[in-house]
């Protein structure tokens, strides 16, 4: 915008300068021409009285004095005598001698001024002087140079003023853009300074009001989520007590592990609700360790339901830009979908390999009835669930700089591919 405003002012200034300087340059050239012609005519008329009344010796002396100043002047007497600058009789001289009148003729070498003098007894004498092209344009080049310099100076001043003016307009706009980008990165403390024209100040105030309103709504949402999470602790405690009261130690351990996982998820929700995570923070974990631990947890349930779990785990560490609790929730959601939406005995394969540009690629494939990807959206599913499982995985992939792909299996079933981006820095635990 700043560049366009500067170009607009430059174009406008050039048009104004052309409209002003071109006529002025033409006028200066006309003035110089008229000045040269008037000066030559004045000198010729100054000799008229001498030509009409003086004798030949006095006339010769007067003409020689005029030509000594550099002026080209020739006097043609009626008897054919030529005094002054030698020159042949031109048609203009012949016309003046016959008609007895003065005239000015424009020729290729300049302007020819002819003055007829009728006072001599023997006939009409003619005074001829020539104004050359150099005399007609004397001083014009210098005047045009001054005008051109003045025009360039005015254009530079106009560009400087335009740049300052455009800067005063674009700086608040750039600041508004930067603040909006910070808000898009979840930096809700960003505020715009109300500077610039009234319209921009109004936009800055509206953006600040919007940011404040978003911050209030998110704070209310976090408080409600935290309150809901705290309310879940009471039934969790009851479940833990029920698990500890089971007679079978193995069953008690399995149920207790499930309660521990649920409590970790609730604790993570409370932490995320109470404290906003910095969007630029480089949180990371070892995908190999997290996936291996969660698959081992689900393998116990797989044995109870007659499922075969094929785990192909690449050698770690495989650092990804996802917190460990979020990645654990993603794996739980993907495997939970398999256990919830496929019949008992359906095999599932979990593959984790290094990504081509760092990070990791997690693939969860089953041989169940499959699920059309276009029928799944946040908060809705065709299988009677909440539809949030795949959304959790999709959000984690997007946050890390990766993506989530859903595709049909080789024969039947569903193949979920989760690409997770690498962290900026990673320290192996």
TrEMBL record:
InterPro entries for the chain: 2C_sensor_his_kinase (IPR050980), HAMP_dom (IPR003660), HATPase_C_sf (IPR036890), HATPase_dom (IPR003594), His_kinase_dom (IPR005467), HisK_dim/P_dom (IPR003661), HisK_dim/P_sf (IPR036097)
Entry keywords, A to Z: ATP-binding, Cell membrane, Kinase, Membrane, Nucleotide-binding, Phosphoprotein, Transferase, Transmembrane, Transmembrane helix, Two-component regulatory system
GO MF, any single term: kinase activity
EC number(s) recorded for this UniProt protein: 2.7.13.3
Transmembrane segments: 143-162
Subcellular location(s) of the protein: Cell membrane
Membrane topology of this protein: Multi-pass membrane protein
Chemical reaction(s) catalysed: ATP + protein L-histidine = ADP + protein N-phospho-L-histidine
CDD domains xrefs: HAMP, HisKA
Domain Histidine kinase: 227-424
Domain HAMP as annotated: residue spans: 167-219
Protein name per UniProt: histidine kinase
UniProt organism field: Micromonospora zhanjiangensis
